[in-house]
Each structure stands twice: as structure tokens, then as C-alpha cells.
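FORM 7B: Structural annotation worksheet

SECTION A. Query
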Amino acid sequence: MTDSTFTIGTTAGYIKTWLMKNYCILPEDKEHLCMPKYRLMFPFMWGDRFIGRARRMIAGQLEPVLLNSYKGHFMPVSGLTYIEECRILISADFSARMWTLGGRYLQTIGTFKPWKKIGADGQSLADDFDYTIPPDIKRIASSTTLRVKIVHLAPLAQFYRVCRQVLSGGSFPKRLTIKQLQKQAQKDLIHIDHSKIYGSRLKEPILGHHYNVPERTTHPKDIKFDTTFPHIPVYQHLVMPQPNPIQVPEVPDDIPANIKVEEEEI
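SECTION B. Predicted structure
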């Protein structure tokens, strides 16, 4: 797309940017590449704790250099357009989306959401620009795609604090081991939050005077039978609903009335 980069779209919806400098050029004619410059432009080139799928596919490949790889669409990419004046990349499948050259999502063209103002120059984007992630990509994005898009969503204060700590001779924040995480989780389960019980035990009645708890007795209830009759009608003392007459369905006219079902022997 630019004088030194080449951007392509794949059938899987990925957008890849390659560095075409020194590709298919004799060794004596090659130019020096300032890789820190490209690392500032493309977060994809930052160091990873584990190698992603995009880097595994180009393992051992010296040229061309893969500068960026991220999932931009759910469907195959059908078109790419690069605007040189403002350094904005527009990709399309069934929708047209705007990206920065580094892979930051700007907005989708033709939606009901308000239009985000973008200057004529690529450097005029404000530091507090509302960078987001497309909802369909957020659900299926890989770790590499999320790293390219979320690295710009992190607060700058946190980024500067970590850089200041490393430059002053410190190290990155320590990561807890599995045993330490298990101990911390156990402490969280044992810990009692006294603020929710007002610092003291609850007093009777716990439910207040708005609900009367029925008395629980272990002795059977005394049942009084009517002994005035020569026999005791036990079923008369049972609380049962009134019997309702059973409605017999009518026999259809197509079925003869003299048909009988033979009883089966079990």
C-alpha cells in the first residue's frame, strides 16, 4: 500500500501487512532497516510470551518481513483501499471498516453510530480517541488480534508507570505461581467480611416481627374421631376434593359401536 509495505486480505478475514524492502534484491543493493521504527508503528512485532499462529507460519522466513496480522472481518476480505494522505486503511467484506496502518479499529462506514471525526493528517488523532473493537471480532479474535487492538486501549498512565519502573532498574510486576494463586483463593474463602453484619452477630428475631415462624413439634397431632356411629367413617375425616364426573368422549361415526377390544393375557 505504501512505498515499502504491502497489505493483503485473506479469505479467513485476516489483514496482513508485509515489508517489501530488500525483497528480491541483491545483497550488495540492500538497505539498512530500522526495525525499532516499525515496532513503534506495528504492535504485532512486540515480543510475545508464546509464539502465535501468524509467527509460526513464517518461522525461518527472512524476507519479506511480516509487520502486522489481525482479524478484521468475519467473512473473506473482498477489497482494500489505502488513503495515503491520512494513513487510513479501508477494508470490506459485507461492510466497510476503517483502520489505522498499525491495525487500530476506527469505525465502520454506513452505520447508525455517530461519525468519529478524523483529521486530514494521520498524526492529528487525539490521544483520547475512542478506539474500540468490532463486536463480531471480539467474540472470535485470537490472542494476537486482541494484542494488536487492546494494546492501544490500555490507559497511558499504566503504560508509563511500567516503563518508568523498568528504566529505573526495577522489573515488571511479579506474576504469582499456581500455588500462590491457590493460597490466595483459599484465604479469600476463609476471610469473613464483618462489614456486612455490622460488626456483631444478629439478634433474635432475625427475620424481625414481620414474619411469624410456625412452631415445630415432634409429637403427633391429636386426631378426634366421631364415635357416635357404630363404625368410624375414616374416609370422612380425610380432606379430599369433591369428585367430578368423568366426561366420556363421543365415539366417531366412522367407528362401529359393536367393536370390542379383546383382553390380553399377561
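SECTION C. Observations
The first helix runs from residue 35 to 41. The beta strands are 5-9, 14-19, 65-71, 79-83, 88-92, 96-100, 105-109.

SECTION D. Sign-off
Analyst initials: ____
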